[in-house]
Amino acid sequence: MADGLLLLHAFPLDASMWGPQMAALSGRYSIVAPNLPGFGDSPQADPAAWMDAAADQAAEAMTAAGMDRAVVCGLSMGGYVALAFWRRHADRVAGIILANTRSGADDEAGQQRRRDLATRLRAEGNGFLADNPPPLLSAEARPELLERMQAIIRKQPAEAIATASLAMAARVDSTPDLAGINVPALVVTSSGDALIPAAASEPMAQQIPGARLEVIPDAGHLSNVEAPEEFNRLLVEHLERSGVAPRS
User: Fold this and answer.
1) Taking residues 79-104, what's their average pLDDT?
2) For the whole model, what pTM was predicted?
3) In CATH terms, is domain 2-241 a member of 3.40.50.720?
């Protein structure tokens, strides 16, 4: 069994959002980028247990790929899953990267917005969300990047997006877990993130012992898509810091 990199995708996308990372790094490192429950080709999970099911499915994908431990990198919703992965499979975590995400649970207003979105998705399908997605990218992002993200959203079953939205509304506050993270940790945010601003991500770097903080300038919420070279540089640095060697 080898060590590698586990990539956990954002909402309402699938694992194909990691294309820039797979293209640049899959020749050098063992990488697993699973579709989270209901997205892409992945089986659905119950909303109440969705985060834990997502973490367990990711662990199963690692095992199927012959991967013992990994640097676990989660972006946005993937960050919530990464924290669930830490709670359930800490022995398989060589390092952790929490990108454009936060540890806290939603407040009541945020929970209601997610529930309302799920209701609308179930009533109307996913077309309205693909046509007018949340601000995943900065205002300066190239139009083709937005078109690519819209195409990914259109591919996802409306029920999968709705279930994940309900799961995020119901997720626990992971902030108490941060002090116990005892592997190399990196918090990544970006100055143009309108969905989870840097101010919401940065406190995690103080709460995780020894964690590093990196702010990618100008990029929006999907920093891996909008600033892939910088994101990939940070990935490689953290793989090295976590003792994950390139394939020989």
Assistant:
1) 98
2) 0.97
3) no
